[in-house]
């Protein structure tokens, strides 16, 4: 355990200090917002609309405009609710672990290059550092998007990895915390997305296809 903690801190210093450059100083504070809890709701709505767009070609054209609108509205609404359910589970597990471990943030344990405002740092200090909630959110969203557009999955996971690195670069998380956060968000999303019967029930895919 001691070796792991030392390695964790060494990698942290490497990313937080040795990677310092003007470009990262400019873009990392913006990239990290992609994993903000408030932004996740925007992702959920966007993915729900994307799912409606993908579902549209599978329906027959003999439905009236009103029937199509009602059908698409139901698909979008229920799929969004499905994503909210996944997010609720992921956020609940992440918050519970933060409370359980209550690990101090890197900037509370050692001298770091802290690249967030004093106000944000004070807010972060009220929550445990393990695991990284932003990283968990980013990988959860990446799993959603990879499910909808598999051919772009590498771009989505690349985005999530960048969010994870931003948390280290900004000085608010250790590498081990973002790694566990990534695993947490991805594994919960993939596990629940694998429940085909639940997806069919929430989106009524089996009822709609072939009509």
From TrEMBL:
GO MF annotation, one: sphingosine-1-phosphate phosphatase activity
Keywords from the named record: Membrane, Transmembrane, Transmembrane helix
Gene3D superfamilies recorded: Phosphatidic acid phosphatase type 2/haloperoxidase
SMART domains, per the entry: acidPPc
Transmembrane segments: 38-56, 76-101, 178-198
Domain Phosphatidic acid phosphatase type 2/haloperoxidase: 81-193
Pfam family, one: PAP2
Record bears the keyword Transmembrane helix: yes
SUPFAM superfamilies recorded: Acid phosphatase/Vanadium-dependent haloperoxidase
Magnesium recorded as keyword: no
Name of the protein in question: Phosphatase PAP2 family protein
Organism expressing this protein natively: Candidatus Desulfatibia vada
């Amino acid at each position: 355990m001691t070796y792991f903690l030392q390695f964790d801190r060494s990698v942290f210093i490497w990313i937080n200090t040795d990677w310092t450059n003007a470009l990262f100083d400019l873009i990392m504070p913006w990239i990290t917002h992609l994993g903000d809890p408030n932004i996740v709701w925007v992702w959920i709505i966007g993915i729900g609309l994307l799912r409606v767009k993908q579902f549209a070609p599978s329906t027959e054209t003999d439905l009236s405009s009103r029937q199509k609108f009602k059908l698409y509205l139901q698909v979008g609404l229920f799929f969004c609710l499905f994503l909210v359910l996944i997010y609720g589970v992921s956020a609940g597990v992440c918050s519970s672990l933060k409370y359980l471990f209550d690990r101090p943030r890197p900037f509370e344990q050692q001298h770091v290059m802290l690249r967030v405002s004093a106000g944000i740092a004070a807010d972060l200090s009220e929550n445990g550092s393990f695991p990284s909630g932003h990283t968990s959110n980013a990988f959860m969203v990446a799993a959603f998007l990879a499910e909808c557009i598999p051919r772009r999955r590498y771009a989505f996971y690349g985005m999530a990895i960048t969010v994870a690195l931003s948390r280290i670069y900004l000085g608010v998380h250790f590498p081990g915390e973002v790694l566990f956060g990534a695993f947490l968000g991805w594994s919960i999303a993939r596990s629940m997305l694998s429940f085909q019967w639940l997806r069919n029930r929430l989106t009524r895919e089996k009822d709609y296809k072939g009509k």
